[in-house]
């Protein structure tokens, strides 16, 4: 049975989308993965450059008939198979690819759709994923940076969360605010997770600010998790920090997945690939140990 993992934080610009994209690609080397853009800003959808890879008419038709908006009308939708965008005409890929499916974001209409539902609106993503998640090994959700109906849908549909925290001053205050929100939702719905991962992002070891914030995450933040009534019961792991490196935005600028970009054009940055492999391994192990 597939694990639904969401990348969350109610702050924008902390690396959620970048992490979701890179992790989905990592898992998709050997697994069947579904990646969902659940953000009205549709950053991940833009990065996929669907119009370049698919016939325009097909994509327009797909976006209107299979839009994720439909799950708020309690209808089912079919994810888009994007495995082919990672292969050339001969069917070869730079980095191994098994199967990657994608649900794009239609933009802000998703917000309106979620808010307009009457009754039980927080559980609709969960209900949809219960139907499709058995077809996947991993479902990765790129969540939006705000507390809303959409956001509660993400929290309630997930088996595990990755809380992305940028290692900058004030990040901890925001991250603590997030814990309170999360704890309230978990209590209201009597919901828990198999695992909670904390991921420091955009870490610059040259900067004092970053070093202090990382130390705070490792220390007081990890301890404070345990003081929340609902969050405190969840097994928690601090993942290895992702460094602040231009290769992340360089790959996105040319609309490549990080792994394919580095192996194809920037092999000097393979240390980042190893880091991602390790992070994915830790997540897999923890989810297996936790069981389902
Ligand atoms: N580890 C990193 N090092 C350098 N830049 C990064 C890193 N992670 C993300 N970025 C850049 O930071 C910006 C915000 O990242 P993004 O993943 O879109 O954040 P969010 O989804 O939380 O809003 C993007 O331009 C992205 O390319
Ligand atoms: Mg984003």
From TrEMBL:
Coiled coil: none
Keywords: Plasmid
Every AAA domain range: 3-189
Stored InterPro entries: AAA_dom, DNA_Partitioning_ATPase, P-loop_NTPase
UniProt cross-references to CDD domains, sorted A to Z: ParAB_family
Pfam (any one): AAA_31
Keyword Cytoplasm in annotation: no
The protein's name in its UniProt record: AAA domain-containing protein
Provenance organism: Sulfuricurvum kujiense (strain ATCC BAA-921 / DSM 16994 / JCM 11577 / YK-1)
């Amino acid at each position: 049975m597939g694990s639904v993992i969401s990348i969350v934080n109610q702050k924008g610009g902390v690396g959620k989308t970048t992490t979701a994209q890179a992790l989905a690609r990592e898992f998709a080397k050997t697994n069947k993965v579904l990646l969902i853009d659940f953000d009205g800003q549709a950053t991940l959808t833009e990065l996929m450059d669907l119009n370049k890879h698919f016939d325009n008419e097909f994509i327009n038709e797909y976006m209107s008939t299979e839009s994720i908006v439909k799950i708020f009308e309690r209808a089912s939708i079919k994810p888009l198979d994007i495995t082919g965008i990672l292969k050339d005409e001969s069917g070869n890929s730079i980095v191994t690819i098994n199967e990657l499916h994608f649900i794009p974001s239609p933009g802000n209409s998703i917000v309106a759709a979620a808010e307009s539902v009457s009754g039980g609106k927080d559980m609709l993503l969960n209900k949809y994923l219960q139907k499709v998640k058995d077809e996947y090994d991993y479902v990765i959700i790129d969540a939006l940076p705000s507390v809303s109906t959409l956001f509660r849908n993400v929290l309630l549909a997930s088996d595990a969360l990755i809380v992305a925290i940028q290692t900058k001053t004030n990040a901890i205050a925001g991250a603590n605010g997030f814990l309170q929100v999360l704890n309230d939702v978990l209590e209201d719905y009597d919901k828990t997770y198999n695992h909670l991962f904390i991921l420091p992002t955009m870490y610059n070891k040259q900067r004092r600010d970053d070093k202090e914030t990382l130390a705070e995450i490792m220390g007081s933040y990890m301890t404070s998790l345990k003081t929340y009534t609902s969050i405190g019961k969840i097994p928690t792991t601090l993942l290895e920090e992702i460094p602040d490196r231009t290769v992340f935005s360089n790959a996105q600028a040319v609309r490549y997945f990080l792994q394919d970009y580095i192996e194809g054009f920037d092999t000097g940055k393979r240390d980042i690939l190893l880091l991602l492999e390790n992070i994915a391994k830790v997540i897999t192990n923890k989810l297996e140990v936790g069981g389902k």
